[in-house]
C-alpha cells in the first residue's frame, strides 16, 4: 500500500484517497465473489436448458419477460447466470420460475433421466434424485437424525413447513402407503423408491440402479 501524505501541494492526499478507494473496490469485489455451490450451478444449467432447449427464447426475450413481471435482469446478466458467473437471488429465482413456467424446485435440482440418479444438493451432498425432488416439493424430509424418532421429525417437518391444509396423511418414516405409492407411480410413472439408512441418509431402495450395459 502506498501512503504518500507529506506532499505539501496536496497531491499526496489525493493519491492516498485513490489508493483507499481502490482497496475498497477490491474488498467489495472479493465479498461478492461467492463460491457457486451445486444448487446454484443447477439453477444456472436449468435456466439455460428451459430458456433455450424448451422455450426457444433468446437471452433478450427472457430478459424482456422478466422486466414485464417487475424483476428486470439484463440479457448480459442472464448469460452470466447461465455460465455460472452470477448468483441468482431468491426474488430472481421466483421470477425466473414464474416466467419460465416451472416450479422453483425445477430450477434448483439437476434434471436427471432416472429417480435413482444421484444429485448434489447444497448442505446434503449426493442423494437419490427422487428423495431430492420429494423434499424440494414439500413431501418429505430429506434427511433424518438417527438419534431421534422418525415420526417426531416427520411431524416437525409438516408442522413447521406446511400449512395445515397441505399436511400429508402419510405416516412418519414411510414415504407413502401402499395405495398412495401405487397411485403415484401410475400418475408419475416413477419406478422404485428410497428409504433412509441408519445414519438418516436417503438411499435408493427399489429397484436397484439400472445397468447401462447391453
Low-confidence stretches: 1-6, 170-175
Instruction: Categorize the overall geometry.
Output: extended
Q: What fraction, in percent, of the residue positions are helical?
A: 40-55%
**Strand segment tally:** 4
Kindly estimate the percentage of residues that lie in beta strands according to DSSP: 5-15%
Order of helices and strands: HHHHHHEEHHHEE
User: How many helix segments?
Assistant: 9
Structural class: mainly alpha
Largest sheet: 2 strands, antiparallel
- Straight-line N-to-C gap: 65 Å
The Cα radius of gyration reads 24 Å
- Write down the overall mean pLDDT: 80
Strand order of the largest sheet: 1-2
Structure, described:
The protein has 214 residues and is mostly helical. The chain has nine helices and four strands, in the order ααααααββαααββ. The chain has helices at 11-32, 38-54, 59-68, 75-82, 90-100, 104-108, 129-136, 150-161, 178-188, and strands spanning 118-121, 125-128, 193-196, 202-206. The protein has a two-stranded antiparallel sheet with strand order 1-2. Strands 3-4 form a two-stranded antiparallel sheet. Helix 3 (59-68) packs across helix 4. The longest helix is centred in the N-terminal third of the chain and has 22 residues, at 11-32. The protein starts with 10 loop residues before the first helix and ends in an 8-residue tail after the last strand.
